[in-house]
Design goal:
Layout lengths: L13 E3 L11 E3 L13 H9 L3 E4 L1 H11 L7 E3 L6 E8 L2 E11 L7 E7 L2 E5 L17 E4 L2 E4 L4 E4 L14 H18 L4 E4 L8 H11 L3 E3 L1 H7 L9 E2 L7 E3 L19 E7 L12 E3 L6 E5 L6 H11 L3 E4 L7 H13 L38
Parallel strand pairs: 1-2, 2-3, 3-4, 8-11, 11-19, 12-15, 12-16, 13-14, 13-15, 16-18
Antiparallel strand pairs: 5-6, 6-7, 7-8, 9-10, 17-18
Helix pairs in contact: 3-4
Length: 392
């Protein structure tokens, strides 16, 4: 859960992934992806205020599709699309006569549909905001927008600060299986269960509304069967070319269902299915805290016919170390920093930064417990968007 309040210290006048309180005074807004903890304050009133004050929200094309559906917005609203690896120049005014110009790039984040990182450049300041992300460390050199050409070589850009997704900056999650490895386990169990009895069905108990799309696509391809999803998600997904062939709103056309609420024990869309014919598969990470994540999957100790699979949309501790040490920024700001974990997070950041080879220790910031931006959330509200993030 993000604790970042949305205000980037080096770039006054913009807000990222927070749309309430002081953020409403900002002149420009950015949304990295459509998960509830990054959408606080996004409502009809917010979009009306954008039009009233001639302000704009920038996001990926897929995020715009989701927003248009979620809030029943007209196509010509004050949402502007940022296309991958295509720089745009934004001019804005904080107050009369106080003009600012920034360059912005969006970069694939490998988290959920439309998820992007933002690279902000203003004069000599270069800031990377990752949002939520998961990228295979082997793919870091392929992120061309985060590199500069020097002769025949591409070198990482010199970042002043990374605002980093530190969800799993935690020794309990040093290693996490790649999503491809996790999907293979889910495929094997699903295939075995469906082969046992033609009446059998599988329920995918996914933890978030969005984020399991890579799983849906790969499982659908492997089994040659579509995934039944909620009507609300179908209305969005059928507009996304990569996803549309793999999902359905016809509950009787497939034995694979991702249409139920978490912890449901029956299929409300299929009253003809008996309880003994239902296998529940839970793709999750939190169930694996303190366990051996290299095991990838195991049967639940307390719930009958429930198969838990370690499945992560966020970078592991080792992947975060590789990311920080590869780009070697001057500073890192943790965007997920719960109060009971702040000392541990800052200690780990100190250790990672001090092991970097490209800067002398005297230039490294010491991570004191400077109060990060906290927020209390009321959670009411091979394609560039779908990374398979194979781990090293």
């Amino acid at each position: 859960m993000s604790t970042f309040l949305g205000l980037i210290e080096e770039l006054p006048g913009i807000s990222v992934d927070s749309f309430e309180g002081k953020n409403l005074d900002s002149s420009v807004f950015f949304l990295s992806h459509c998960h509830a903890d990054h959408m606080n304050g996004l409502n009809i009133s917010f979009f009306e205020s954008l039009e009233k004050y001639n302000k704009y929200l920038y996001c990926s094309p897929i995020s715009k599709i989701i927003l248009l559906n979620k809030f029943s917005l007209k196509e010509k609203c004050n949402i502007k699309e940022i296309y991958m690896d295509t720089p745009i120049i934004i001019e804005y005014e904080i107050k009369r006569g106080d003009n600012h110009v920034i360059s912005v790039l969006s970069i694939p984040a490998g988290h959920c549909p439309g998820s992007v990182m933002f690279l902000f450049e203003k004069h000599t300041i270069l800031i990377l905001y990752t949002g939520d992300f998961r990228i295979n460390p082997e793919d870091l050199p392929k992120l061309r927008s985060l590199h500069v050409k020097q002769g025949l070589r591409l070198l990482p850009k010199k970042l002043n600060r990374i605002y980093l997704d530190t969800t799993f900056l935690n020794p309990h999650f040093s290693y996490l299986p790649s999503r491809k490895e996790s999907v293979i386990k889910i495929y094997q169990m699903t295939n075995e269960w469906l082969d046992q009895d033609p009446r059998n069905v599988v329920m995918l108990e996914c933890s978030a509304l969005f984020g399991s799309e890579f799983l849906y696509m790969e499982l659908s391809k492997s089994l040659n069967k579509k995934i039944h999803v909620k009507d609300y998600l179908y209305d969005i997904y059928h507009n996304i070319a990569e996803l549309a062939p793999h999902i359905t709103n016809d509950s009787n056309s497939t034995p694979i269902h991702a249409c139920t609420n978490k912890s449901a024990r029956s299929l409300k869309c299929r009253y003809d299915v008996n309880k003994e014919n239902i296998l529940i598969i839970v793709p999750s990470v939190l169930k694996w805290q303190g366990k051996d994540t290299t095991k990838i999957a195991e049967w639940d100790e307390h719930r009958e016919k429930t198969y838990n699979v370690c499945y992560s949309m966020h970078s592991s501790l080792n992947e975060l170390k590789a990311f920080i040490q590869y780009f070697d920024p001057i500073d890192v700001f943790p965007c997920v920093c719960p109060r009971d974990q702040e000392q541990q997070i800052y200690d780990i950041l100190n250790e990672i930064m001090n092991k970097s080879s490209n800067q002398t220790l005297k230039n490294k910031p010491k991570y004191k417990l400077r109060l990060p931006c906290y927020k209390i959330s009321n959670v009411t509200t091979k394609n560039v968007y779908f990374s398979d993030d194979d781990s090293c």
